[in-house]
Amino acid sequence: MAKPIPPHRTLLQPHSTFDLSSYSPTSSIQSLSLSHSQTLIYLATSSGSLFLLSTNPISFLRSVSVTDSSPIESILLLSDIGKVLLLCDGSLFLVDSLLSHPVKKLTFLKGVSAISKRIRTGEADCTDLVLPANLESSTPSQRLFNKLGGGLKANGVKSNHTVQGNNVFALVIGRKLILVELVFTDNRVGETDKEVDSLNGSLLILKEIQCIDGVKTVVWLNDSIIVGTVKGYSLYSCVTGQSGVIFTLPDVSSSPPQLKFLWKEKKVLMLVDVVGIVVDEHGQPVGGSLVFRGCPDSIGELSSCVVLVRDGKMEVYSKRSGRCIQTFTFGSEGVGPCIVANEEGGNGGLLVVATPTKVICYSKVPPEEQIKGLLRKKNFKEAISLVEELESEGEMSNEMLSFVHAQVGFLLLFDLHFEEAVNHFLQSETMQPSEVFSFIMRDPNRWSLLVPRNRYWGLHPPPAPLEEVVDDGLMAIQRAIFLRKAGVDAAVDDDFILNPPNRSELLESAIKNIIRYLEICREKELALSVREGVDTLLMYLYRALDRVDDMERLASSVNNCIVEELETLLDDSGNLRTLAFLYASKGMSSKALAIWRILARNYSSGLWEDPVLESDLHEGSKKIPSGKEIAAIEASKILEELSDQDLVLQHLGWIADINPVLAVDVLTSKKRVNQLSPDEVIAAIDPKKVEILQSYLQWLIEDQDSTDTQFHTLYALSLAKSAIESFTLESVSVNPDDQREHEANVSDLSRNSFLQSPVRERLQIFLLSSDLFDPEEVLDLIEGSELWLEKAILYRKLGQETLVLQILALKLEDCEAAEQYCAEIGRPDAYMQLLDMYLDPQNGKEPMFKAAVRLLHNHGESLDPLQVLEIVHNLSRAIDVDARLARLEERSRNVQINDESLCDSCHARLGTKLFAMYPDDTVVCYKCFRRLGESTSVKGRNFKRDILFKPGWLVTQ
Description:
Blueprint: E1 12-19, E2 26-33, E3 39-45, E4 49-54, E5 59-65, E6 72-78, E7 83-88, E8 91-96, E9 104-106, E10 112-119, H1 140-148, E11 168-173, E12 176-184, H2 193-197, E13 201-210, E14 217-221, E15 224-229, E16 232-237, E17 243-248, E18 259-262, E19 267-272, E20 275-279, E21 290-291, E22 298-302, E23 305-310, E24 313-318, E25 324-329, E26 339-342, E27 350-354, E28 358-364, H3 367-376, H4 380-392, H5 398-414, H6 418-427, H7 437-440, H8 466-485, H9 494-498, H10 503-521, H11 528-544, H12 548-556, H13 563-572, H14 576-585, H15 589-605, H16 611-618, H17 627-639, H18 645-658, H19 660-667, H20 678-684, H21 690-703, H22 709-731, H23 736-752, H24 759-769, H25 775-782, H26 788-798, H27 801-811, H28 815-825, H29 828-839, H30 849-859, H31 865-891, E29 915-917, E30 923-925, H32 926-932
Parallel strand pairs: 10-14
Antiparallel strand pairs: 1-28, 2-3, 3-4, 4-5, 6-7, 7-8, 8-9, 10-11, 11-12, 12-13, 14-15, 15-16, 16-17, 18-19, 19-20, 20-21, 22-23, 23-24, 24-25, 26-27, 27-28, 29-30
């Protein structure tokens, strides 16, 4: 913003002038507002005359003579009773407000040097004064004392009557401070105001307080009386009479003491040389001090300002800032003493200045005109400060404050100060977001009629697109630079002249700040049409700065964008993701899904770069979805809520190709109102996407509680087929290198699968839990496989007990499961059947003695002893036969010796020598046999200690 021009605004303007050249010099002046259309001015002269003037314009009404030659020193207006109290030649005089009756002198008090009316800011802030109790007699005046109430006596005795009148004064007579009340006699009930006005008044002494000598000025506020002398200022309590020093003036002071009561703040201004110090009723300084340019002749008050007159000049100071905001020259240097007066209360709009030769009436410039003047001079801060001041004082509405903030914002915007402009826009409670639409989109447009017209003061150009605002502003800067070189001043920011801004930077700043304004406006309560404009134009601005994240955030959230206004913009600029989000937010699902499908295809084919993958590479191993995965995710979000079956199945395939989990989420979503037809879904699933089919069937059966046997059987068959394939893949015999590759493939397959548990586990659980599938059909499928536990479950469902036991006991060798199944059968013969299987497993399988012993130990009581013994007898005979057969085989073994055969011990050729063969099939010559012995072989094995068993049908390793 441009450097502020020295604070100077037009607060007052001359209203009218009255010539006093034919009258005596003025001694004091005061004004009183009687009505909205008439203001009276009381002008006291040094010759003792009181003139009554009327403004509008200033004209003479009448005058009265108070004394022949003494000046009237003070004028006190008693507006509540229509009287004027005058101090002249040490005495007090009373006259009616229109000077229609003769002046009455108030007797018995003389030598009054200063007077002040008591000012009460509130009943709670004041103590009621009381009358002396010893003034009781039969005279009318004394009866009046009793009527008004008693008071304090010198000896401290109190009466029971208090003073209720408002016209109470403090008089300074010599070294005494006398408190009096102006009362009227014969105040009869029913008298009119006119009759009361003509009655006589008198002064009633309430109290006397010892005071200092030389008092020149006095102010009585609530219970405190502040007096000023050439030595300083002191404070007296009207209740206790105690006193204290407030401030001591320097020995050489350039100005006499002056006190001025400030009506707005209910405080007192003390003049100390050229400094005005504001104090409260206790004499404590409050707020800041006012530093004047010289010693004033007189001090006045106008609303939030203090007015000083001196040496033919008038200066207006702001109470808040302490700065001089306006000056006037109304007389030549040496014109003589000047007096300024304001309307009582300090809220009026009139100020009167009197010199010995003339009276000048100044009127307050309307606030709007003051503000306009400041804005024309580009004193924006001063204008806002003035408005805030006026608003805090109740002289201006909050709506006007908002109005000015908006006006300042537009001026700053055209001055290329976009951040500050938006700051003021945001402080305006009445400004509508539509007022900035014309800066974004050229008129006419969809929202042109929403923009308020002719609301401001015409201080700024009409709205135009931001590009034009920037271009015009830059031209103005170039023009100002040229004028400065020519010696002509131009109202342009000096920073811009010294450092001409860059167009692109200015335009970017403008767009960013308008974005900031519209983003905040989105949080307000706005009409629908305005919300549509805000969101749509926000998208335009985001696009202008290529803020893709913000575009997508806005499009994917709840928004009021107008799609037809943005389709071409987003399509042509390649912001298809944003367009897809926008379509989805507006319920245009088909169009949104079509875009996501296109994006997924383009990412997959490499037609587009995938920024997500690029960032993934730079960030190392951090897992971030690729572009096509994000497309599938966004499409699945839409499909999960759709009940349009054709549209769901149309896009299911490409989503499943990218991420099967998303496809399952789409099919099993609980967000849609109407679920899809299972038959059509199953028909639409790619047969290669087995896991998707299984997950969907599992959802139908477990979550949807489907009892359709077709679905149960289809699920069981699909699981069985997958289990067979998995088992086959794991059992393939490969070389070590192929084995490692195979294990890696299996590991990758496991990681890529979105199903948590292995397929066989799921198959077994389902076969056990469901009774609605066709077990024979499943059994036909797995009959030739190694899925023995699954076969056992199916045979069990079919009631094939023997086959179940054979599988559990002989194929799976699960003794516990076999015994448990026998317990489920519940017949003792089941245990006998199991024992028989253990001892005679058939098909060349060796007897399972340990299992048989376990069975006898756990369930011996359930077995028939005779049958068990018979079995044992048969087993013993079989062992004996086997042993005989083994011995026969050993004895009948043959060995073939040729010329090349060698002794396994001495390695000599055997030829035709005798030889021997040990049980471990070693052959030695007879000599070595005699040396080794028949029980120890060449290999050092002692057959007596380490018996060698040859395998037989009852002997196991």
